[in-house]
Amino acid sequence: MTSITARRRHPAAGYAVVTLGLLLAGLSYAAITGSGAASASSHSLTQQAQIAQGKAIFNQECSSCHGLFGQGVTGSGPSLIGVGSAAVDFQVSTGRMPAKEPAAEMPRKPLELNTAQIRALAAYIESLGGGPAIPTSAQVSQTGASPGFGQQLFVADCAQCHNFVGAGGALTYGKYAPPLTKSTPTQIYEAMLTGPEAMPVFNNTTITPQEKRDVIAYIVQTRSEPNPGGFSLGRVGPVTEGLVAFIGLLLFMVFAALWITAKHGKAHE
To answer: Cα dist. 197→105, 136, 194, 242 in Å?
Structure first.
């Protein structure tokens, strides 16, 4: 007992205790941060591999119109620097890109790339300069959304071009607003974020994320609503229905006139 007490009173004992404490603290910190660094390094390597895959796809499918570095080519394709991954995902997931030839309006067509290739391409374009990101599943979820309020927003901001049920319609200068009947919630959200073609951009200040979800809920709800009037004529509104009624009535009057004339001619003979 006397020897232990003597060692505690030794001048070097305090330094030994401090050194041991520092060593234990260092080992504990290294164990905690080492696992996090390894995880971050693994994530970084995965992301780098995805970006490299996206660059290879871009060089093969997109560089002829948008340039080798996404800077754009005059008369062929705009710059993609800063457009973000959301714009890429929308254009490619709807089949509008890659395009065979430049056009003012790119219609929806069958996909040329699968989901993994689209995400890789989007990651590469995002690495060039940021921009709106692809919305998460939580952002486009319709849980808790209000279709009624979404209808008010849609009528105020979207119905002028897309029709009040999203059936699409013609615009000026030969442009058109496509129907929304085949658009996924993610694609609708991305369109509001990026403003493709003739569509304006509705950022999160103009229409909040919650309001975007309300609009999506209304659009999805209209797809399952019945047609109380019977044959819907594409649900494109009263103009088309009025035109069909007018043409039908006009044809009826023409055939009635021909029948009366023919009957009168036979009676005269």
So the answer is: 7, 23, 9, 30
Query: What type of residue sits at position 207?
Result: I
Q: Distance from first CA to last CA of the chain, Å, rounded?
A: 146
Q: How far apart are CA 146 and CA 208, in angstroms?
A: 13
Whole-model pTM: value is: 0.69
Q: What domains can you pick out in the chain, each with its CATH number? A: 44-132 (1.10.760.10), 135-250 (1.10.760)
Please give the pLDDT value at position 40. Answer: 47
Exposure class string for 163-180: b at 16+ Cβ within 10 A, else e: bebbbbbeeeeeeebbbb
CB atoms within 10 A of CB 151: 20
Mean pLDDT of 40-50: 73
CA distance 68 to 98: 15
Q: In sequence order, which residues have a C-beta less than 8 Å from that of residue 220 and are 6 or more positions away?
A: 142, 185
* Residue 73 backbone dihedrals phi, psi, to 5 degrees: -130, 125
CA distances from 96 to 50, 87, 125 (A): 22, 11, 17
Position 241 pLDDT exceeds 70: no
Q: Is residue 256's pLDDT more than 50?
A: yes
Looking at residue 104, its pLDDT comes to 57
Average pLDDT over residues 185-197: 92
What span, in angstroms and rounded, lies between the C-alpha atoms of 180 and 200? 16
